[in-house]
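Problem statement: downstream parser choked on a complex file, so we are re-checking the raw output for the fe (ii) ion run. The parser issue turned out to be on our end (a line-ending mismatch), but while we're here, posting the original submission so the record is complete.
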Amino acid sequence: MTETVIRQVRVGDGREPVTITIRHGRIAEIGADRGAHGQVVDGAGGLVVPALVDPHIHLDAVLTEGFPAPNRSGTLLEGIERWSQRKPYLTEDDICRRAEEVIRWHMAHGVLNIRSHVDICDPHLTALRALLKVREAIQAVVTLQLVAFPQDGIYCFPDGPELLEEAIRLGADVVGGIPHYEWTREDGLRELELAFGLARKYGRPLDIHCDETDDDQSRFLETVANLTRQNGLGGRVTASHATALASYNDPYAFKLIRMVKAAGVHIVANPLDNIVLQGRFDTYRKRRGMTRVKELLAEGVTVAAGHDSVMDPWYPLGSGNQWFVASMLAHIGQLTGSDELPAAWQAVTTAGARVMQLRDYGVAEGMRADLAIYDVPGPADLIRLMPLPRWVLAAGQVVAHTPPANSTVWWHGVPQTVSFFRS
Ligand code: FE2
């Protein structure tokens, strides 16, 4: 079927419902209803947005919380320890099954673009081999990018440099890193030089786990920015987490944020994990741990937000709902000013698309028809209610549907429907 017509949907700030005509997987027309020659979707007056983006998750680790042992302290370091204990049990089938389960959760939430870090500190690269299969199996519906991610470091793990390069040769889309985890600052710098060298050699973008610590002496983001500038890779480099930026002194943070902007480095904040994992060495006052989102945005830096974990050794909660992530970003980052709140929904849509360098993204004629339709008046309600979409379409084909659920309360004994919208 090459044509889909979506009737009765609102686009952007528009109040009047329109019709979207999709041909050959792309939005052909927004506006007039010229009749249907294929699949018809009733938008029921809902708001249509581009399919959501999760620019940072670890699909190899999802749904592993509790086995072989739970993370009793809830800390980052115990999480890494528990993950190391889990690794000997990993098989390709196990990873494929768990990853596909969570991808289905993402799809139900309207997320069709996912960048997953994959732990390559494994002589067999089991997780990468599994996720390469998943990427291929779902490519018609979900854009899945895989980052070669050295969870246990490059220079403090046997054959780290060779494994990183082998992962890229096998087909990882993005070069990863974790410089703050190396034993010394010097090794962290060497790791970044290696990662940028491989990115140049194989023509890949980079996404570095950068300064995910409360240590204000962890200063690898400045090197990421500098190497990005020197290599002319602006727009192709992402620093993920960057939580230490929240702990730097203000004059240094001011200078650094300007460097990040000038170099064209994108930032991915991961508010769910970092609000629970950071500040663990603090008594009171406890740091929030998330990077300086408001200040980065004020400088014009692209800031996206990732789910990071779903029920894994670092974060035992989560369901693949990127509106929950956006909501947490807004809360922790205090983005509740009327001019600031849009950054929260952009973090899981357009900003995420910039991080993943997605082409043809958006609700506009000519764009790929990857869409989610919600029963809400406006985008702020997506942050407030974190709803499931009524319809999700990939290249114009329905791939997820959630029937609307209404609540009834008995108000003084009389049943009334509760909509959660201002009347
Ligand atoms: Fe991460």
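For whoever reads this later: The domain at 3-50+370-408 is CATH 2.30.40.10 (Urease, subunit C; domain 1).
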